[in-house]
Amino acid sequence: MQRRHLLQSAAALAVPLLGPLGAAQAQGFPTRPIKLVIAFPAGGPTDITMRVLADNASKILGQPVIVENKPGAGGTLPALQLQTSAPDGYTVGQIPLGVFRLPYTTKISWDPVKDISYVLNVTGYAFGVVVPADSPLKTWTHFVAWAKANPGKLSYGSTGTMTSPHLTMELIAQKLGLELLHVPYKGSADLMQSILGGNIMAAADSTGFAPQVEAGKLRVLNTWGAQRLAKFPDAPTLKELGLDIVQNSPFGIGAPKGTPPAVVKRLHDAFKQAMEQENYKTALGRYDMVPMYMSSAGYTKFAQETFLREKALVEKLGLAKPS
Q: Is 127-223 the same fold as 32-124+250-316?
């Protein structure tokens, strides 16, 4: 009887130990470098700001967070890579807004809402339209008038097909009855090189174009936020121009589906602390971006709502794939 009592007592003591043991394993994460896959090339605003964030997170996590650039396919390649990565927290990826449009435009075998573990949202973009400084399109009024007089001839570049700059420009064109010529690029660096080289007439992009504007090489025709940007106080918003459009394209970090909740929390806490540091805020400020935090639960809800909203936009523009 005494031996049975001792065994029962030992079993009873063992049960509560399972919880702390699981927590200890989560606290041990990470034990090796983490890969952060981003959707745009080196040298652009996303790359520059995400590298500051990754460096901050490295110091908090005690392991390197290594940035891997995977541009192309409208910013959806990091999310695609998560579908084939182990759900252990050692591969995470940037989730641009274009990910939520993918099933409506391309045949895929995974679900952007259900097949990604959403860690946190970190920021969003400030967008606008720019033209070369010597362009005859001095204002947005000139841009619209020239486009109407020359259907299909006004060329503009974006950071890729089905990205927010592309779809927003197509929505603007639809509202104004314009036919524009879209030229996609892999990212801001390529796009800026092209417009400065005279290959396209305009560019729709995040404010990675700011240094070129400040150098007197480009001119801003409009910006896409709710208010004018302090850096470009003379550039009207789309709303001021009579277009009821605000686009800031929030993005954050996701992990593979099935990543343990304790690991997601560890990543969330580290990246949240990383984005609260002044050097990250300063890096964002160079491109008129601001921290835009959403928790894991909040970001998951945002993904669900955005998935439905983007479906309506793609269908409205007539860009949905044939059923």
A: yes
Count of Cβ atoms closer than 10 Å to residue 194 Cβ: 16
Please provide the CATH number assigned to the domain covering 32-124+250-316.
Answer: 3.40.190.150
Report residue 294: phi and psi, to 5°.
Answer: -135, 135
Give me the residue spans of the domains in the chain: 32-124+250-316, 127-223
- Per-residue pLDDT of 71-130, as tens digits, reads 988 889 999 999 999 999 999 999 999 899 999 988 899 999 999 999 999 999 999 999
The pTM score is 0.81
Q: How far apart are CA 156 and CA 8, in angstroms?
A: 74
Please provide residue 160's backbone torsions phi and psi, each rounded to the nearest 5 degrees.
Answer: 135, 155
CA distance 231 to 87: 41
Q: How many C-beta neighbours within 10 Å does residue 233 have?
A: 7
| pLDDT tens sequence across 183-241 | 999 888 899 999 999 999 999 999 989 999 999 999 999 999 999 998 999 999 999 99
Q: Would you state the CATH architecture of domain 127-223?
A: 3-Layer(aba) Sandwich (3.40)
How many Cβ atoms are within 10 Å of 150's Cβ, its own excluded?
11
User: How many whole angstroms separate alpha carbon 276 and alpha carbon 290?
Assistant: 11
| Among candidate residues 154, 213, 163, the one with its CA nearest the CA of residue 187 | 163
Count the helix, strand and coil residues of the chain and give each as a percent rounded to the nearest 5.
Answer: 45, 20, 35
